[in-house]
């Protein structure tokens, strides 16, 4: 079974500490994690549990279980957004907002930080690559999980999305089972 890797903000949330505490521990080499090609840290649950045990930290449980997962869908295809709403109906504990382009998505980031962004590539005003570049340039959103689903994935676009650390890249049309499994993996949602 594949081990789930947590981003820095997810690891901080898991341990019940701030993102800056987590970053400082990594810089001080108190906790080790894997590093992506883009230079982002990833941690396994086992690494975090071991670190917490050595440091005498208690891991908060119930507060994480009741947390609402925020999902932002950015896609100009209303049919795909409706498909996503139906697909996500198998989960509990999430709130979803949707926009039709990257510019509207960027405006939402000012007051609403998503845990997961589901992103198309070809859209008006600001395309998916431009949005992802903006997302990764902001320290508050750099570790946000991103699932890209698009019918317009040239090798160059895939390479740029990978460089920008998109977590999952899917070719449209997507299969429902694969989409649900990918969302569950990235957002750690619970089934109804």
Percent of residues in helices comes to 40-55%
Shape: globular
Largest sheet: 5 strands, parallel
Compute the separation of the termini in Å: 23 Å
Number of domains: 2
Which sequence of SSEs, written as H and E, runs from N to C? Answer: EHHEEHHEHEEHEHEHEHE
With strands numbered from the N-terminus, the spatial order across the biggest sheet is: 6-4-7-8-9
CATH superfamily membership of the largest domain = Response regulator
CATH class descriptor name of the largest domain = Alpha Beta
Please give the radius of gyration in angstroms. Answer: 17 Å
| SS content category | alpha/beta
The number of helical segments is 9
The quaternary organization reads as: single chain
The amount of beta strand, in percent, is: 15-25%
